[in-house]
Specification:
The complex is a heterodimer of chains A (74) and B (348). With 74 residues, chain A is an all-alpha fold. In chain A, 59% of the residues lie in helices and 0% in strands. Chain B has 8 helices and 18 strands. Chain B starts with a strand and ends with a strand. In chain B, α5 runs parallel beside α6. Classes of the chains: A mainly alpha (74), B alpha/beta (348).
Chain lengths: 74, 348
C-alpha cells in the first residue's frame, strides 16, 4: 500500500520526478491551492476515507497524510 | 433518521431575479490572467451577478414574486404562506418575511417566517412550506430563497469573492390532492460551523470597534470580521462526502429509480466539487445541469436558479435536488412536476 499511496499522491498533484514519504509537500513546485483539494478527493476515491481541511493543514509531510489515512482505514 | 415524506403538495412555478451588474472573473483584480483562467476552469465560474450597495435579497425576491404570481395567474389574496430563506436579511430585527408581506401587498391572514440557512436552505425551506400546506387548510404559498452574499465578502478575498454570486428566487408551492408531494433526507454537522462564517455582528461577538479592522490572512486574503470566511478545503471535504451520501440515503429509503429521474439538481458549489459528487453517484452528465458559469455560487438560490435557467420542463418531470454547505447543513429532496411554470429571468 505504501508505494501505491506515493503514486496516488503524485498523480493527484501531477508531480513529476521522485516523491518520498519524508517530503514536505508544500515545498513542491507543483503544490498550489488546488493540490489540497486533489489530495482530499484522491483519498476519498481510493481509500473511502474523509480527510478534512484541518487534517491537511496539520500535516507537513506525505508520511503525516499517510498516517491519517492508515488510521482511518482501520 | 431524518427522513420526511409530505404528500398532497407540488411546485407550480419558479421565478428568479438577479442584479443587473455582471462581474467577470477575468477582470478580478486579485488574479493574474493565468490565475483567473485556472480558477474558471476548475470552478466552472466565469461571471457572477453583483448587487448594488442599496440592493437587498428581499428586493430581488419581491420583483421575482410579482412576476411569478402573474405568470401563474394567482391572486395575491390567495397566498396563505410566505417563507423567506436567507442569510442576508434586511435587518437583524425584525424578520424580513414580515416586511415582504407588506411590500407585496399580501393579506394579513398569512403565515410568514424567516429561515436562516444558505446552500441547503431551499431544500429545508421546501420542507417547511410543504408541511404548512400539506393538509389543505392553507392552499398556496411562496418560498423565497436567495442571498446577496457578495455584499458581505471582502473584494480582497480571492478565496471567496470570485466564487459567490447574488440572486433571489421564488418557488410557488400549492396544495393538490393528487400530487405525490416531497420525499426528503436531512442532515447537519455543527462541528463544522466555522467552515463558512461571519465572526462578528451576531450576539456571540457583537459588532465592536475592531469589527471593521482589515486583517491580512495571507494567500491573497484581506478581510474584516464582518465579512464572510470561507474555508474551501473544509467545505470541499464535506461536500464530496455528505452530498452523495444524502442522495443515496434518499434513493434507498424511498425506493427511487435513478434511471427514471430526469434531473439531479445540486447546489452550485463549484464544478470540480460538483463533478466529483456526480461521478460518485454515477449520474450521466446530461442529467446534471449547471449554471455556475453564468451565476457562480448563489447560496440558497442555486437550485431554483439552475432549474429556471437551464431546464426546459416537459409535461411531467421527476427531480432530485440536493443542497449542502454552510452550517454545515445538507438536505436532499425528490419531487415530481407537472406543467411546471418557469418565468423568464428578471434583472433589477
Amino acid at each position: 500500500m505504501e508505494n501505491q499511496f506515493l503514486k496516488n499522491i503524485a498523480e493527484a498533484i501531477s508531480k513529476e520526478g521522485k516523491i518520498r514519504f519524508e517530503d514536505d509537500f508544500r515545498s513542491y513546485n507543483e503544490w498550489d491551492s488546488m493540490s489540497a483539494l486533489s489530495v482530499i478527493a484522491m483519498v476519498d476515491e481510493k481509500y473511502q476515507v474523509r480527510i478534512t481541511g484541518n487534517d491537511v493543514r496539520e500535516c507537513k509531510t506525505i508520511q503525516d497524510l499517510y498516517n491519517i489515512v492508515q488510521k482511518r482505514i482501520q | 433518521m431524518s427522513f420526511l415524506s409530505i404528500p398532497n403538495v407540488k411546485i407550480s412555478g419558479i421565478s428568479v431575479c438577479v442584479p443587473k451588474k455582471i462581474d467577470l472573473v477575468a477582470n478580478y483584480p486579485g488574479f493574474t490572467l493565468d490565475e483567473a483562467e485556472k480558477f474558471s476552469k476548475s470552478t466552472g465560474i466565469y461571471q457572477r451577478r453583483v448587487s448594488n450597495q442599496d440592493q437587498c435579497t428581499s428586493d430581488l425576491c419581491i420583483y421575482a414574486a410579482d412576476k411569478l404570481i402573474k405568470d401563474l395567474g394567482w391572486r395575491k389574496q390567495d397566498i396563505d404562506c410566505l417563507i423567506f430563506v436567507t442569510q442576508t436579511p434586511d435587518y437583524l430585527i425584525p424578520a424580513t418575511s414580515c416586511i415582504i408581506q407588506d411590500r407585496l401587498g399580501f393579506s394579513e391572514n398569512i403565515y410568514a417566517l424567516d429561515i436562516s440557512l444558505g446552500c441547503s436552505g431551499w431544500v429545508y425551506g421546501l420542507s417547511v412550506i410543504a408541511s404548512v400546506l400539506s393538509n389543505g387548510m392553507m392552499k398556496k404559498g411562496l418560498l423565497l430563497a436567495g442571498d446577496t452574499a457578495l455584499r458581505g465578502v471582502s473584494k480582497e478575498d480571492k478565496s471567496a469573492y470570485p466564487l459567490f454570486g447574488d440572486a433571489g428566487t421564488v418557488t410557488a408551492v400549492e396544495y393538490n390532492q393528487d400530487a405525490h408531494g416531497f420525499d426528503f433526507h436531512f442532515g447537519c454537522d455543527g462541528s463544522g460551523f466555522e467552515a463558512i462564517i461571519v465572526r462578528d455582528g451576531g450576539y456571540r461577538n457583537m459588532f465592536n470597534e475592531d469589527s471593521l479592522v482589515m486583517h491580512n490572512e495571507g494567500d491573497g486574503i484581506v478581510r474584516n470580521r464582518m465579512q464572510t470566511v470561507l474555508d474551501g478545503m473544509e467545505v470541499f471535504s464535506f461536500g464530496i462526502t455528505k452530498a452523495p451520501e444524502s442522495v443515496t440515503k434518499l434513493v434507498n429509503k424511498f425506493n427511487l429509480e435513478i434511471e427514471k429521474i430526469d434531473y439531479f439538481v445540486f447546489h452550485q458549489a463549484n464544478l470540480y466539487m460538483n463533478e466529483i459528487i456526480r461521478k460518485k453517484l454515477s449520474i450521466p452528465p446530461e442529467k446534471v445541469p449547471y449554471c455556475l458559469d453564468e451565476y457562480g455560487n448563489t447560496s440558497s438560490a442555486s437550485i431554483p436558479l439552475t432549474i429556471c435557467s437551464r431546464i426546459r420542463p416537459l409535461v411531467d418531470n421527476e427531480f432530485i435536488a440536493c443542497g449542502f454547505g454552510v452550517g454545515l447543513s445538507w438536505g436532499s429532496v425528490y419531487f415530481q412536476t407537472n406543467n411546471l411554470v418557469l418565468s423568464q429571468i428578471l434583472e433589477l
